[in-house]
Known about the structure:
Elements: H1 3-6, E1 8-9, E2 15-18, E3 20-21, E4 26-32, H2 34-42, E5 49-53, E6 63-68, E7 72-74, E8 79-83
Amino acid sequence: MTEAEQALIGPLHEGHYRGHCLAGDDVHEGVMTFDEAKAYAAGHADVDGFTFEHQSREPAERVRVVFKSKMRVLYDEAWWSYSLGKAF
């Protein structure tokens, strides 16, 4: 079974998902807090969500965030993904 076959494929409801987004569909990358990432994503029509590696699902410190045009989340304990739920 491939990673894509094991992944949650969007559109996804708004909220947190445990795991990282599959490679591809990148729109932007930056280092920011969760709140900054959520604000950036909400202000860009081509962003469906973002993914980041951290223990906390809403880190207050800055982390590397990858913004995605499609949400395809593969379960991973070290990562979180956040969907804006735009399709719903």
